[in-house]
Amino acid sequence: MTDIADTLLAFSEKLADISRAMILQAAREAMRIDLKQDDSFVTATDRAVETRLREEIGAAFPDHGILGEEHGSERLDAEFVWVLDPIDGTAAWIAGIPVYGTLIAVARAGRPLTGVIDLPATAERLTGISGRGAWHDGKPIRCRAGTTLADAYMTSSNPRFIPEADRAPFARLDGAVRFTQYGGSCYGYACLARGRTDLAVDAGFDAYDLFAPTAIIEGAGGIVTDWQGDPLDIHWRGCVVAAGDRPLHEHALTRLGR
C-alpha cells in the first residue's frame, strides 16, 4: 500500500501542476460565469480543468474510477477512485479572493487515501496520505492538539451553505468556540492540517469537497467525520466536522447533538 499511495500522490501532484497553470492563465483572461441548478457559480475554467485532469487520469489509470464536481462519476465501484474539485471556492476565484484551490484525491475502497490541496493564488500546496503523513510545500505538518472547545478557532466556508435543519446545531457549536472564521473555502481545511486552527465545520457538502482535505488532515493526525461521528465515504453528502484531535472532535459532536 505504501508504494501505490506514493505513486498515486506523485501523479496527483503532476495533475496539480497542470491545474495550477490552467487556472493562473485563465485569471489573466475574460471570465465566463454561469449558474448551476443549485445557484452556485461555475466557470469555463472549472469545466476545462476537470476535463483535462480526467483525460490525464484515463490515460494513466484506465481501470480507475472518477468522481468530479463538474462532469459526474464513472466506475465508482472501482478499487481506486479519483475525486476531483477543479476549483473549490469558485465564488472566491471569481472575486479574486486568494482562498480557492484545486482538490485532487484518490479513494481506495470508498475512503480517502491520498489528497492534494493546490492553492494557485498563494503558490502553496498541501499533500497527504491518510494515517501516514501530510506536508505543506514538502515540509511535514501536524494538526494542533490539546485545544479546549472554549479556546478553539473554528472555520466554516459560508453560513448560506448550511441547510435550515442544520443551523440550530451549528449555532450551538459556534456559540461554544472562541472564534469562527467564515469564507475560507478549502484554505480553512489547509489551515487546520497545518495546526493554525482547531475545527472546520460545514454542511451541504459533497465527497469532492472533502476527500482531499480529509486525507491530508488524517495524515496530519486529525479526524474528519460527519456530524454523527461516522467516516465519509464516496457516496457521502451532508455535514462534516474536522478537528485537530479526538477529544476536541468529541466535544464538537456533543454540541452538534450527536
Note the main attributes of this structure.
single chain; 258 residues; alpha+beta; Fructose-1,6-Bisphosphatase, Chain A, domain 1; D-Maltodextrin-Binding Protein, domain 2; 2 domains; eight-stranded mixed sheet; five-stranded mixed sheet; 7 helices; 15 strands; globular
What is the topological layout?
Elements: H1 2-26, E1 33-35, E2 41-43, H2 44-60, E3 65-68, E4 72-74, E5 80-88, H3 90-95, E6 101-108, E7 111-119, E8 124-129, E9 133-136, E10 139-140, E11 153-156, H4 164-176, E12 179-182, H5 186-193, E13 199-206, H6 207-219, E14 223-225, E15 237-243, H7 246-256
Parallel strand pairs: 3-5, 11-12, 11-13
Antiparallel strand pairs: 1-2, 3-4, 5-6, 6-7, 7-8, 8-9, 9-10, 13-15, 14-15
CATH fold naming of the largest domain: Fructose-1,6-Bisphosphatase, Chain A, domain 1
Mean pLDDT: 93
Would you state the CATH class of the largest domain?
Alpha Beta
Task: Give me the Rg, rounded.
Answer: 17 Å
CATH superfamily of the largest domain: Fructose-1,6-Bisphosphatase, subunit A, domain 1
Strand order of the largest sheet: 4-3-5-6-7-8-9-10
Task: Report the total helices.
Answer: 7
The end-to-end distance, rounded to whole angstroms, is 34 Å
Alpha-beta content class: alpha+beta
Helix content: 25-40%
The H-and-E topology, N to C, reads as HEEHEEEHEEEEEEHEHEHEEH
For the secondary structure, the number of strands is 15
Overall tally of domains: 2
Unreliable parts: none
Q: Classify the beta-strand content into a percent band.
A: 25-35%
Biggest sheet architecture: 8 strands, mixed
Give the CA-based shape.
globular
